[in-house]
Amino acid sequence: MTAIRRLCILALIFISWALFRNSISARPNPKQDSPVVNPTAADLERGKKTFETTCSTCHGLDGGGAMGPNIQGIPFRLGADAVTSVIKNGMSGGMPSFSGQLDATQIQQVVGYLLTLSHKDTGTIAGDAAKGKDAYQSSGCAGCHIVSGQGSGVGPELTMVGQLRGPGYLRNAVLYPGTDLPQARVFLETGGLLDYMFIHVVTKDGHVFDGTRVSEDSFRIVIKDAAGKFHSFQKSDLRELKKEPGKSVMPSFKGKLSDAQVNDLVAYLASLKGAQ
Ligand code: HEC
Ligand code: HEC
């Protein structure tokens, strides 16, 4: 008798706890439920439009990643609230804040739209990251890049590059250096990366220097050469100053590495998601 009674009391406590819990969390669990409750076709259509005009330059038209990471189906992974907060507040690696540009409804529509993109995650990466690490070490990448404190900083640090960039962008970076420069305005604002514009300089006394731009104003320019040495010039002392978008101090590895090695390298770079 007392056992049944105890059970009844326990059940009552459980039910009232569940009811209470439900009433305080008016929002559904974002990891499981759609963030826009019953988004209409019109909501999704608007979300798609906002995505294409506002986000796709960095995340790719299909959300599969470009200069920014793959975000297909990301509300499933991070939760809708976290994604909403990222869009509102931005992140330190180059993700801008959109709070001034998009209102709450527009943000919810984008989040809803993101859920409709298939979430293949990083399934497009065909290579083997462990072999890619070997290719990285034998190709001299560490002469110009830092991964978890190892290497030198002629080019951007790669410790988190898999978190910041999509696989297609990484492949292009290895095969066609200089084509997709990390976007200067955003990166300077966040203090993350410098501007890697390729600069060719000839001084009045005939010395030639090539390197990436570190800083520039009306009177001076500072560049960093392929060995990581800084050179500062008074513009009035120069015979020639050329910006050469599309060129890079980074050599192209197209033809130097086999297709399989490039796949492995991309898999390795995509696996770099912060200090281990
Ligand atoms: C200027 C380029 C740029 C634009 C435009 C941009 N993003 Fe991003 N986004 C990034 C980068 C780079 C990251 C990597 C994280 C960081 O900044 O530290 C990122 C990260 C994210 C993340 C987190 C991904 C993760 O795995 O943690 C989400 C979600 C996201 N962006 C959504 C959006 C949405 C939605 C839009 C449009 C409203 C947008 N982004 C526009 C560059 C951009
Ligand atoms: C002589 C120096 C140098 C060497 C060697 C070099 N890089 Fe680079 N790398 C750079 C510079 C400078 C950039 C900046 C953008 C540009 O110029 O394309 C860059 C950009 C990159 C980026 C894009 C990073 C971002 O956040 O946008 C990746 C990825 C990359 N390099 C990978 C590699 C790999 C992998 C190797 C070896 C196979 C390598 N690099 C060898 C100098 C170098």
Model description:
The chain has 276 residues and is α+β, with helices and mostly antiparallel strands. The chain folds into 3 domains: 76 residues, Cytochrome c-like domain (Cytochrome Bc1 Complex, Chain D, domain 2); 77 residues, Cytochrome Bc1 Complex, Chain D, domain 2; 47 residues, SH3 type barrels (Roll), CATH 2.30.30. Helix content is 41%, strand content 13%. The chain is built from 10 helices and 7 strands. It is globular and about 95 Å long.
List its salient traits.
276 residues; alpha+beta; Cytochrome Bc1 Complex, Chain D, domain 2; two-stranded antiparallel sheet; 10 helices; 13% strand; binds heme C
Would you identify the CATH H-level superfamily of the largest domain? Cytochrome c-like domain
- Which sheet architecture does the biggest sheet show? 5 strands, antiparallel
Number of strands: 7
CATH C-level class of the largest domain:
Mainly Alpha
CATH architecture of the largest domain: Orthogonal Bundle
Helix tally?
10
**Which fold name is given in CATH as the topology of the largest domain?**
Cytochrome Bc1 Complex, Chain D, domain 2
Mean pLDDT rating: 81
Task: Note the topology.
Blueprint: H1 2-24, H2 41-59, H3 74-78, H4 80-89, H5 104-116, H6 129-138, E1 146-147, E2 150-151, H7 161-164, H8 167-175, H9 184-190, E3 198-203, E4 208-216, E5 220-224, E6 230-234, E7 238-243, H10 259-270
Antiparallel strand pairs: 1-2, 3-4, 3-7, 4-5, 5-6
One heme C (HEC) binds at residues 136, 139-141, 143-145, 154-156, 158, 161, 165, 170, 173-174, 177-178, 181-182, 196, 212, 226, 248-251, 253, 265, 269.
